[in-house]
Amino acid sequence: MTRAASAEDLSAQVEADFGQLDPAFWQSTSDVNVIHAIFPKLIEFKNSETWDWELSSAESIEQVDELTIRFKLKPGLMWTNGYGEVTAEDVEYSFERFNNEALAASNAGDWAPLKDVEVVDTYTGLIHLNEPFAPIWWSTLPYAAGSIISKKATEEQGGTFTTAPKATAGPYKIDRWDQGQRTVLVAHEGWNGDTTVQTCIVHLVRHSLNFCGWKDRKNVAKDLKRVYSPAWQVMFTSPRRRPPVTVRLKRLWLTLRLNGARNILQSPQVGVGHGKK
């Protein structure tokens, strides 16, 4: 297991707070932003302008035939709060629940072609499809629907959750959530990959001025302009309108595993800055 090394922190700016962190029920881009940071996926989008992907929590993954995908998880990926290791059984539970009629997932269509997930051993599984579905490599596995959640923890919560999952295993975990103001994400020590950024403070700016009196708003607005200058901010864009930008953000912000962090964060196309505390 690779522990996160000390590095720079990231300050991000968003216009709306998250409200639903269950991948089967997410409703907004703000939801997806946090889902990508706190839950592992088998594959992730690469940091590029294309829809190319690369391995994430999967050690290997291959299309055996047009209806079968074999995956093997990396060992040592741990759930928070003592829920043990991420296993193929968690993957089975995470994907199959989308098509559970009793759950009535609002995003059930994301896994519509799924037949089932067969658990081979602790880390290995087979994804069986009812029909060929090439977009699974771009619209499903590396996106919110590909998020892996803890079977044990979720069942303890009645089969679903909203803003407080009992266990997560992504590169980051929620350290603090001041609803309507900010979210603090910190590197998850149980993540078995790299986390260059140790802390990401996500500031909600749309309603910032609602927390001060009218006579102070002008001065507060002036200070906010300095705090959220281009050197320190991330402005998120609708994935349906700006897919190339979203690809970069999926790798940059949604997973926050920043390879070559300085070059990426200074990219004018992404519009992101970074700094030390």
Automatic annotation (TrEMBL):
Record family assignment: Belongs to the bacterial solute-binding protein 5 family.
What InterPro entries does this protein map onto?
Answer: SBP_5, SBP_5_dom
| PANTHER family tied to this protein | ABC TRANSPORTER, PERIPLASMIC OLIGO-PEPTIDE BINDING PROTEIN, PUTATIVE-RELATED, PERIPLASMIC BINDING COMPONENT OF ABC TRANSPORTER
Gene3D superfamilies reported for this sequence: Periplasmic binding protein-like II (3.40.190.10)
Name under which the protein is recorded: Solute-binding protein family 5 domain-containing protein
Q: What organism, scientifically named, is this protein from?
A: Roseobacter fucihabitans
**Superkingdom as given in the UniProt entry:** Bacteria
The Solute-binding protein family domain covers 58-197
Where would you find this protein in the cell? Periplasm
